[in-house]
Amino acid sequence: MEPRPRSFYILAAFFTLFLIFLYGPTITIAILSFQGPQGGLTFPMRGVSLHWFYDLFQEQAVGDIWGSFRRSFALGLMVMVTTVVVSVMGGLAFRKRFAGSTVLLYLIITALVIPSILISLGVGLIFSQSGLKVHWATSGFGAQLTWTLLFGLLIMFAVFNRFDRSYEEAARDLGASAWQTIRHVVLPIIAPSLIGVALFGFTLSYDEFARTLLTAGSYNTLPLEIFGMTTNVTTPVIFALGTLTTVFSFVVIGVFILVVWILGRRRARAGSDAGKGMV
Length: 279
Known about the structure:
about 280 residues; mainly alpha; ABC transporter permease; Bact_Polyamine_Transport; membrane; MetI-like; transmembrane helix
């Protein structure tokens, strides 16, 4: 076995430092959330216990943690569904050239570099000046879509750019209508990508702060609530909240990965059954 070059160890060390930089703060918060009842917000730890996790489920003197969590979860689902539907429709529309398609594509890309706080300010002003109520389910929903739809559309553009249209032609030759072709041919093929877009939509919405700051109205989402708690809460309960929200995020990602795996198994099984039927 040939010895590994020195560059391998340099890159490995660099990658290790990157992982520490990336996950170090999260790991630190997780460790501090297990402080004892007399623990503080910094090291050294004063005992080890689950006290602050229990305290998190008690009535808090400051903030509305679980109300903000429900709002963030509901908003994430709304944004996720809308992002998937609009992204698929946009991806299908851009398969054919139409007047202004190039300009529209550049506008979509340009929107990615606009500061999020300006988007939040603009959406909030539009709603307030129009006499509409600034609320997390309306203005907050619209502000977050200006972020999630961009990623969803770019993903769908890439998916449909390499999509083999012969599958659709074969379905039409067999008598399928346009809707049947999309439902029974196109959507099953791009299902893993749709799950990726859904995951993008939910996670980007769930932890979005800047675009929600001036559009949530009088009810905070979870990121806004956590930010508010940093100026009032002086106990490790905020670390316990951060740990639970991180675990929740990993659970959501795990569920989406599991769905993709199940779809892949079903597709492989269906292909195998079709092959046996032809034999």
